[in-house]
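Table S7 (text form). Paired inputs.
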Amino acid sequence: MWKKILCFILSLTMIFSITGCNREEKKKGEYQIYYLNMDRSKIVAEEYDSTGAEEEKLVEELLTKLQSAPDSSKLRQTIPADVKVNSFKQNGSYLYVDFSEEYMALKPEEEILIRAAIVKTLVQTSYSALVAFTINGEPLLAHDGTLVGSMHADSFVENPGKQINSSVETTLNLYFANKDGTKLVKETRDVHYSTNISMEKLVMEQLIEGPKKSGTMATVPSGTKLISVSVVDGVCYVNLSDSFKNNQNAEVNEEIVLYSIVNSLTELQGVTKVQISINGSTDGTLRYSYDLAKLYERNLEYIKED
């Protein structure tokens, strides 16, 4: 009897031992820390075995690694020594990281790489799906004065350092209001853009710029600011300033304003639904009827046939 019990205990010990080994194997290399290469032309990942800390502590751990020298002598520390991480905080799916003012002194071609490395490192945790940078509490502005907004891993082209400031051309299908404001009119537009801008941001900037086709009207007020735009699991989250809601053209129907944005964004590969927020809030309605909290899919009902 005792022999059987002893064998059972030894078997359990072996099982737990094997399970423990498997867990350790899964944890090893679970995360990647992104660093800059020596000539600052691209970012390179190093595997990192975390301490297994809870999510908030894990973010702190990863930020510490980004502020430390990498193991490889062929790589550079991601966050320069003179740039301080003041704080970080989570708000929903957003992780806000606040830096000292020295961040703004970074050269543009180096800053985009550092930004990509930080974001790609931090979004690996379940603590954050989107990352936004602030400088002493103020939203980060790009060197051309535009708002950077929230970012995710796909916000950056692969090996972005090789394509800094390069320009490519694409064709967009945008939807604006007809002259009566009751239907959508498709406008096909060839656009030159920087490879460091996401396609979702490009679409929204073109909608804000307004139509070029005669007999059509803008659907987004010209004073509207694009605070952020990002895609997570096929949903495009568009965060606009309150000018979008307060300064709408009453001649354009509410549904035309909504589906001008939704249909334009869902033309992009990987976007199936759209949610619009005003200054980060999804409370209330777009104007009268359409709830901001809802996710909206493509709707062809309002498109005017050529």
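Next pair, protein 2 of 2.
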Amino acid sequence: MTNIKVINLQKKLNLKVPAIKAVVKTVLKNLNVKQSELSIVFVSYQKIRALNIQYLKRHHTTDVLAFDLRDADQMKRSHIMGDVFISADAATKQSKEFNTNPAYELTLYVVHGILHLQGYDDHIKEDILKMRKKEAALMKILGRKVNGVTG
């Protein structure tokens, strides 16, 4: 069973919900996720910063936050249950910095958030490289290049 909710709490970008759901379904399929209860929530800088402070005690803004909602019995790789919060403001800013576009950045953030729910981390160099490699592979499957690299 796959249940994907896309929630738009921002006003900067015009989101194409069917396209976002298609990205999520493709990523889940390629990660061999059989069951999912997933919310993808698009927010502003202010909202993602508030969530970062409230839940992670980090007093700065970020691009993606992922919250795994599974209990101990559900901790299987073939099952995902969680919320991914994505900053539309970060997508706009990063698209200018990396010479991409907001839709590309949002897609990358969706991939990034789902990978976090799959146990990928990006806090130490070795884990960052592993996550970036998986992001690049998934973006290639989605038909998008990551910073000029296709995988």
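The chain has five helices and four strands.
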